[in-house]
Amino acid sequence: MYLSYDEKPGTQAIGNTAEDLVPVPGEHPTISRERLITSMAMVKKAAALANMEVKQLNNRLGEAIVQAAEEIMALILMK
C-alpha cells in the first residue's frame, strides 16, 4: 500500500498496489448485500433513538429516521 502527498492538505490519495483477492467460499468471510443494508438500518435506528433520548435530535426527524429504517428492514426481510 502506498500513500501519496499532494500539495493541498486533505487531498492525499491512498492506493493499493496488491491485486484484489477473490473470496473463496468457506475460506474468506463474506456478507450478503441484504445483511449489510439491514445492519446499517439497525445502526441508523439505534443512533436516532439514542440521539432523541439525549435531545441531540428533534423528535420529528428522529421518528422519520426510525420509520425509514424499519421500512427498509421490513422490505429486506420480506424477500
Automatic annotation (TrEMBL):
Residues 1-25 are annotated as: Disordered. It comes from Paenibacillus piri. The lineage of its organism: Bacteria, Bacillati, Bacillota, Bacilli, Bacillales. It comes from the Bacteria. GO terms for molecular function: lyase activity. Keywords: Lyase. SUPFAM superfamilies: L-aspartase-like (SSF48557). InterPro entries: Fumarase/histidase_N, L-Aspartase-like. This is Uncharacterized protein.
